């Protein structure tokens, strides 16, 4: 266990550069005192780790030092061949590079691990998009990815979610592939007062905003290098935006009565945000549960609630109840006649 931790500490310093004892302790889930002892052990073993004191200090490896001891276990080697999504790599313009990297990795592995890795690759394939969904065209993805990597400011012509066309100067900070759709997070430059309203796909309004790559109509790499925000974490920022996006979409509150079966259907088939309304539901005298459910809109609520048939009764808002009643009457009229 300790040997694995020492190797992890060494690789962290090699891959990330200078790191404080506190940051190392957080990454390795140990105390700072343990980090001090581990550094001493690595130094005693001949690993050139230096400590810089004061503000901005930390531990770092001697310039130019690199270890070739990666310590890949069988499981770790196998997992490397599950990390790539071929379609996504091709869209980024990295298909050939990924294939070459896999070949080099296979060549570097011992015979037994190479055989196991080949078995994994031949038995598992990742296909991100959902069924019956064509990939959105993303002609500017490769150029955008290059700008993200080089930290270059870009100028884009962008089609907003409301159909309005805008031009923006952006500092692209990262790319995200979600359910087969590419998004990018970027820091907008100051817009003109008359067009200073939020131009990202959805709220919330933040300094860093989220855009869909498929809505880029033109992209120009300015070649100007920007400074990334200190402490920016792509995964964390995406998680915040995703949560806020989902919350903002579920703006309609519907008061409903559910049978026991209806309660289970909502929990099994509705979104997590909608199903959360059933938490702590108490049964009434009629054997049904009265709860408030959050849904996206009247139209979506109608299409969702009709699946539950008589197991759900909408009490409000009135518009939703009326629309469901109209739908039920129209359906009954179609099937009310005797079958031929």
Question: Any idea how many domains?
Answer: 4
Spatial gap, N to C terminus: 74 Å
Radius of gyration, whole Å = 27 Å
The number of helical elements comes to: 13
* Order of strands, widest sheet: 6-5-4-3-7
Shape: elongated
Q: Structural class given helices, strands, pairing?
A: alpha+beta
Portion in helices: 40-55%
Q: What is the average per-residue confidence, as pLDDT, rounded to a whole number? A: 82
Biggest sheet descriptor: 5 strands, antiparallel
The H-and-E topology, N to C, reads as HHHEEHHHHHEEEEEHEHHEHEH
Strand portion:
15-25%
Q: Give start-end ranges of low-pLDDT stretches.
A: 193-206
Number of DSSP E strands: 10
Domain HTH deoR-type: 2-60
GO molecular function: DNA-binding transcription factor activity
Keywords: Transcription, Transcription regulation
InterPro entries: CBASS_pafABC_assoc_protein, DeoR_HTH, HTH_11, PafC-like, WCX_dom, WH-like_DNA-bd_sf, WH_DNA-bd_sf, WYL_dom
A few lines on this structure:
This protein has 340 residues and is an alpha+beta fold. Helices cover 42% and strands 21% of the residues.
Describe this structure in words.
It is a single chain. By secondary structure, the chain is of the alpha+beta class. The chain has four domains: about 1-60, Orthogonal Bundle (Arc Repressor Mutant, subunit A), CATH 1.10.10; about 75-125, no CATH class; about 140-245, no CATH class; about 250-335. The chain is built from 13 helices and ten strands. It has a five-stranded antiparallel β-sheet. Strands 9-8-10 form a three-stranded antiparallel β-sheet. A hairpin with a 5-residue loop joins strand 3 (about 150-160) and strand 4 (about 165-180). The chain is elongated, with a radius of gyration of 27 Å. Mean pLDDT is about 80; it is low at about 195-205.
